[in-house]
Amino acid sequence: xxxxxxxxxxxxxxxxxxxxxxxxxxxxxxxxxxxxxxxxxxxxxxxxxxxxxxxxxxxxxxxxxxxxxxxxxxxxxxxxxxxxxxxxxxxxxxxxxxxxxxxxxxxxxxxxxxxxxxxxxxxxxxxxxxxxxxxxxxxxxxxxxxxxxxxxxxxxxxxxxxxxxxxxxxxxxxxxxxxxxxxxxxxxxxxxxxxxxxxxxxxxxxxxxxxxxxxxxxxxxxxxxxxxxxxxxxxxxxxxxxxxxxxxxxxxxxxxxxxxxxxxxxxxxxxxxxxxxxxxxxxxxxxxxxxxxxxxxxxxxxxxxxxxxxxxxxxxxxxxxxxxxxxxxxxxxxxxxxxxxxxxxxxxxxxxxxxxxxxxxxxxxxxxxxxxxxxxxxxxxxxxxxxxxxxxxxxxxxxxxxxxxxxxxxxxxxxxxxxxxxxxxxxxxxxxxxxxxxxxxxxxxxxxxxxxxxxxxxxxxxxxxxxxxxxxxxxxxxxxxxxxxxxxxxxx
Amino acid sequence: xxxxxxxxxxxxxxxxxxxxxxxxxxxxxxxxxxxxxxxxxxxxxxxxxxxxxxxxxxxxxxxxxxxxxxxxxxxxxxxxxxxxxxxxxxxxxxxxxxxxxxxxxxxxxxxxxxxxxxxxxxxxxxxxxxxxxxxxxxxxxxxxxxxxxxxxxxxxxxxxxxxxxxxxxxxxxxxxxxxxxxxxxxxxxxxxxxxxxxxxxxxxxxxxxxxxxxxxxxxxxxxxxxxxxxxxxxxxxxxxxxxxxxxxxxxxxxxxxxxxxxxxxxxxxxxxxxxxxxxxxxxxxxxxxxxxxxxxxxxxxxxxxxxxxxxxxxxxxxxxxxxxxxxxxxxxxxxxxxxxxxxxxxxxxxxxxxxxxxxxxxxxxxxxxxxxxxxxxxxxxxxxxxxxxxxxxxxxxxxxxxxxxxxxxxxxxxxxxxxxxxxxxxxxxxxxxxxxxxxxxxxxxxxxxxxxxxxxxxxxxxxxxxxxxxxxxxxxxxxxxxxxxxxxxxxx
Lengths: 492, 492
Hints:
- 2 copies of one chain form a homodimer.
- The first copy, chain A, is an alpha/beta fold.
- Chain A has 15 helices and 20 strands.
- Chain A has helices at about 25-45, 45-60, 65-75, 80-100, 150-155, 170-185, 195-205, 215-230, 250-270, 290-300, 310-315, 320, 350-360, 375-385, 400-410, and strands at about 5-10, 15-20, 110, 120-130, 130-135, 160-165, 190, 210-215, 235-240, 245, 280-285, 300, 325-330, 330, 340-345, 365-370, 390-395, 415-420, 455-465, 485.
- In chain A, the strands form 5 sheets. The first copy, chain A, has a 7-stranded mixed beta sheet, sandwiched between helices. A 5-stranded parallel beta sheet of chain A has the order 7-6-5-8-9, with helices on both faces. Chain A has a 4-stranded mixed beta sheet with strand order 19-4-3-20, with no helix packed on it.
- In chain A, helix 15 (about 400-410) links the parallel strand 17 (about 390-395) and strand 18 (about 415-420).
- In chain A, helix 3 runs antiparallel to helix 6, helix 9 packs parallel to helix 10 and helix 14 (about 375-385) runs parallel beside helix 15 (about 400-410).
- The first copy, chain A, is globular, with a radius of gyration of 24 Å.
- Chains A and B meet through helix 4, strand 3, strand 4, helix 15 and strand 18 of A and helix 4, strand 3, strand 4, helix 15 and strand 18 of B.
C-alpha cells in the first residue's frame, strides 16, 4: 500500500528500483531535525566541518564500486564516466573543505570606530542561512545529486541539508545518503523521495533556501512555491541552456573538419545530457560547415536517455520538429532504448521565425546549425539569444571581430570559451556555472566552483560588540587569522 | 491636460509642487537610451567613472542651498537634517568612486591552466548587469533618492540608471536629476515621474534589476512585476522593519532612565520615519521600564509626517489600535499637520495573541513596549519575530545571557547592535543594511555601505582567452593591479 518511487532501466525501459516515497510526517521530521541542528552546525569550528566533509569523501570512495555499479544500472551513463563523476564528487567535497578552512567565504570586512565622525565599530562577516533543501538532478547521479555540489557547498557553509532525491536513481541516492548519515551529526543531513515530499520540504518554515538543477518547467514551478511561502525564500535554479558556439569564417575555412568533429563529440557526450551541451552552432553560410557537421553526425552512435520523460521530450521535441532535418546518426543497435543523434538546420533568413523553436532546450544528442551571412548578421542573431550557461567562439584571428562577438556573448552567457567546448566543467576557484535567465534563476549565482558556497551565506554586521562576544573570525586579537579587509580610519 | 504629480506641503497638508508625469513613450525612450549607453558605460575605465561620480558630488554641493531648501519645503525634515543628508549623499558618491578605483568589487579569481588535470585557463570577474531601475524613497529625499545609494552604487558598478522619483519630493528630484544629467554621458542616467512610468520602466526589456526602498505592499507588488516579465529580473527591496531592542535586567535596574530617554529619542528622530526606527522594546516585567519609557514619551514633541498616505496609516494604524495605549506625547502645536508620539504596551502573557498586530510596521513616532518574565521567555519571544534590518541589546554583563540573546537575534536581523541605537546608519565598508524578509526581499543584499554595489554585478568566467582579448583587470601582465585571488596550481 505504500507509495513507491519506481526507477527505470534506461537501456531497456523496464521498471527497476522501487523505493518508498517519504511521507509528509517523515519529511517534516527531517526539516524539524535540520532546524534543531542548525545552530550547532553553524557554530561547529570550520576545521571540524572540513574534517567531516573529507570523511564523507573517504566514505564514498570506500563504497565506490557498489555506488558506481548501482548508478550505471540506474542511469546507463557507463562505468568510466561514473567513476570520473565520483572523483568529481569527492573532489568537490574536499575543495569546499579547504575553502572553508581558508575563510575566504566569510568575506570579513572591518570598520574601526571613529567617534569623531560618529562611526561605531562595525565588523561584518557572512553566516549560514540555515537549513537548505537540495533537488538532485537526473543527469549527474553523483556530482549534482545527494552528495553533489549543492549539498557539499551548503554543508561547508554551515547549513543543514535535506535532499530531495531524483526519481530515476533512488538506489544510488540511498547508498550515498547512507555515507552522509553515518558521518554527519544527527539532523545535519536528510534525504527524501517523491515529489510531494520535495514540495513539503520547500514549504516547511525551517527551509531557508533551495538549490535545484533540472528542467525549466520544474524549476519555475518550484520557484513559485518558494515565493508563495509566508516567508519567501531564495530559489537557486539551474534550468535550461542552449550553449551557442560560433565558428568564425577563418577557422571554418582552415580547420572546418576538426571543428565539426569536435562539436559533434561535445554534443553527443553522455548522450547529449549535459547542461553545457552545445545546442546551437553558428557557421558561415557558404555551405561548407553544415556539410562537415552533417557528416560527423552521421558517423555518431549514441545510447539511451536517462528517463522515459527525457526520451519522450527528445523524440517528439516540438521545437525541432519545425526545423529542417540536416542529418541523423545511429542509436546503438545493442541497446533497445538507444536514441539517434540528430542535426537540424536554420538558414540565416529563417532565423527570426525559428528563434522560439531553436531556443527550446532539447535534452539529448541533438543540435541546430544556424548560418550567418556577415559579421553584422552574426552579431544581430547572437544578441537575440536567450541566456545560456556558456558560449564558445572558434577563431584563428584575435582581432576586432572576435572582440565584438565576445562583447555580445558576455551578456548572453556566464562562461565565455575561446577555441574550446563547453562540456567538461572544471570544478575550480575561478569557475562560473551560471548565466542569464533561463540558464539560471539568479545570474549572480554559480552551482559549480568555490563561489557556489556564496548561495548559502548572508552578511551580518556586529556593531559595538566586545571581543569576547564576537565570533573568533571577527576578533582583532584572534590568532585564527582569516582574510579580512580593514577600512582605513581616515576614509578617502 | 497633462497628468501631474502633486507634491504636498507636509506642514500644512496643502498641495504644493506639480510636476508632469512621464508618459509611456518618454519612459521607454529613457530605457532605450540606457540600453544604448550600457556597453560604453560598462567599459568606461573605472577611474573615469569614479571621476564622474565625484563631479556629481561636487555639483550637488554647488547647488546645496537650493536643494536643501526645496527638500525641506517638500518633506519638512528640517534644514540641519537635510544638510546632513546631502553630506551623506555626496559622501556615498565619493565612497563608491574610491571603491571602484580599488577594484575589490570585481572579485577577480584566477585558475591557471593545468593541462595534465584537464583544467583550462579560467579567469573570473564581475561585470555590470546592465540598466537598473531605482525607486526613490519618501523618507530620504537625497540619500535614498535620485542620487542616493542605489543610484551611486549602480552607476559605480557600470550600470546606467533610470530613477522613478518619489511623488512627494518631485522638485527636489528635478534639481538633483539636473546635476546628474549635466555630468553623465547621454543615456547613463534618466528620471521619470509617476506610478505608471515606474511600472513601464520595470517592464521594459532593457531593465536588468530593480532597487527599491519603501513599503511592504508597494515592494511586493513591484517584486511581482519583476517576476512576471518574460525574462524575470532581480528585485532588491528594502521593505518593513521592526528593529527590536532588548533591555536586559541589569541595565534596566542600573540605568533605566537613560535607556528610556535614548530609546524615545531614537524612536522619534526624524518623526519616526527611519527604516531603522526602533519599533519594539523588550523590557523586564517588573513595571519599572514601561513607566520610564512612558514618561519619556509624554515629554516628546514631534512634527509632521512626509505624506498624506503615511499620516493616514500612522493615525489609524490597524495593528496598534488593538494594543493597550501606554502614553502619548505632543504634536508640535506650531505645525498644523504635526502628529503626536505614541507608545503601546503588550504584556508577556498577551504577546502571542498580539504578535500580528505589533509586527505590522508603523511608520512614524510610535513604538510598542513588550515585557518578558524570564530569560527563556525573552528568547522564545525573540525567535518568533519577523525579520528586521537591525536588532539591539542593552546590557552591562557580557556573559552567556547576552550571548544567547545575540544567537537568536542574528537569525532575525542583519545588524546586531550592543548598547547602541539603530538610527544613524554609518555609510562605511563593514556596514550591512539588510536582513531577513520582510526587512528585505534578499537577505544577502545591502543597500548601504560598500557592499551595496554587489547587487548590480554578475560573475563572468573567461576560459582560454589570450591576454589581448581580456579586460585589463584579468590580464596577468596588467600594470593596473586589482585585488585577485589565484588558485594554487596544485589544488589542496
